[in-house]
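Record passed on here:
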Amino acid sequence: MKSVYIRERKLYTKSELMELFSELDANQLNIFISNLKAYGILKLVKGISKHLELSNLVILDDYLFWESDNQDSSCYIFNYVGIIIVDGYLLCCYPKYLLSHDKIEDKTECRQLLKQVLKVLHRYNTNTQSIQLYCEGLQASSFSRLSLIIALLDDYFQNGIYINTQNVHEFNGVGEINWNRTINFIHPMWQEEEPYYINLWTRKNTIDDKNFIQRIHECLLTHCSRELEELTLLELLDIQGVYMTDLLLEDLGDKEYLLHRISNELNIEFNSRKQYVLKLMSALIMEYSSVSETNNINLFGTNSFNLVWECVCADVFDNKLKVPLSSLPLPQPVKIPNNILDTKPKTLQDLIERPKWISTKNNIAFSDTLIPDLISVEQYGNGYSFVILDAKYYTIRLENNKINGQPGIGDITKQYLYQLAYKDFIELNEIQHVKNCFLMPTEKDDITHIGYAQLEMLNKIGLECIQVREIPAHIMFEYYLQRRKMAISRLHL
C-alpha cells in the first residue's frame, strides 16, 4: 500500500492529483475524487489563484463547488486531518500549519508529527465518547471499519478480554459460605441447643474459559491486529498488536450464526462495557471485509480539526469557564454584579448576560448568549489576572501591509465583547491585569508574539487590544497527551 502525504487545505490542481496518485488512470481518478467528495473530504475550488494559501473557512466557502469539473485549471483541497485508506492508498493528511513539510521529500519527521496528531485525535475521540469522528457527506452514516478496529483494541487495553463468570457451588470448598444452601441441605450437630455445621456448602465465581463470545473476541482482536500490521498502521497509530489465537472467525461459524450468538448475549447482558464490546464485535462482523479492499473507504480523523485545537487549548491552559466561582483563585466570597445577582450564577459562564426578548404584552424570554473558548484566572504579583483566550485554527500571514488567513470581524468583535461582558465582575473583584488573546497553532518551536488586532472605537471605552500568539502545536499536543498544564505567564501577555 502506497503512502501519500497530503496537507489539509492546500490547493492541489488536477495535474498534481494525477501525479500523486499515478497508479490511477483518468477514469479511476475521477471516481476516486467523487468518492472523497461524497465524504466531505475533498472539495472543488474554482475562481481562485493557485498561489493563495487557504486557511480561512469563511473566505473559502464562496469558492466551493460540488459538481464535477473537467477543467484542469480548477483546484481541490483536502478538508481532513487524519488517515484515509482508499483504492490501495494510505492518505496521511497532516494539519495545515505544517507548511514547511510540503517541500520536504523525506516525510519521516512529518510522519512523526502526524503520529502525535493521531494520538491527540484518539484522546479527543475517547473524551467525546464517540467510536469515530464522522465526516460530513453523503455516506457518513456508515462507520469506518478502521475506527471500529481502533475502538475494539483500545477497549481491550483498558478492560481486557471479554469474560463471563459462573457461580460454582462446592461441598466444603474454599469459597464464601452459602448459608441458605447449607441450612436447607445439611443436618447440623446440636450442642446446648445450638446448631453446629461440620460440613458446609460454599460458592465462588469462576471464569468460563470455554465461553463462545470470548473466543469470538479473541479471533477479532487477532485478525484486526494482523490487518493493521499489514498496513503498517500499528506503528503509525502507536498501537500494540494483540495475537491470542490461530483460529479464524470462519472456524467458529458463518456470519449469521456469529451475529445470532452475539445478539443472544446482548439480550441477557446488562453490563454497559460488555454491551459496548458486543456491539463493536457485531459491527465488525457485519462489515467483515479488509480495510485495504479497493471498494472501501476507511477513515480515522476529522474534518473539524478546529474543534480539536480548541479542546487542546482549553485543557492545557486549565480553562476556568465552568469552574465553580467558589473554586476560583480570587478573594472569597467572589463578588457578583447586582444586575445578574438574581440569576444565582455558579460559574464564570453564568456571569455573561443573556439577551432579553420582550413582547408588546411584556412577556419576557431569554435566549443563548456569548460563550468564550477559555478563561484563565490566576494570581498575578500582588493582584490577580483575568485572561480571555480564544483558540483560532488559522495560519495568519501579516506582511507588507497585507494580511490573509486572519479571523474575521465577527471573531474580533466577539473577543472584545467577552471582556465587556465581564467588565463589572472584573472591577467589582478588583482585578487589575486583564488581557485578550487569540491562540493559533504553528510548526515553530517557540511561542511567537506576532502582533495584535484592534478596533479603536472599542479601545476608547477601555477594552484591551486582542493580542495574537502563535503556539507550537507539537508542544501543546505533548502537554495534552501527558495531561499537563501550561502557565499563562508563558504567553507573555
Notes: The first strand starts at residue 2 and ends at 7.
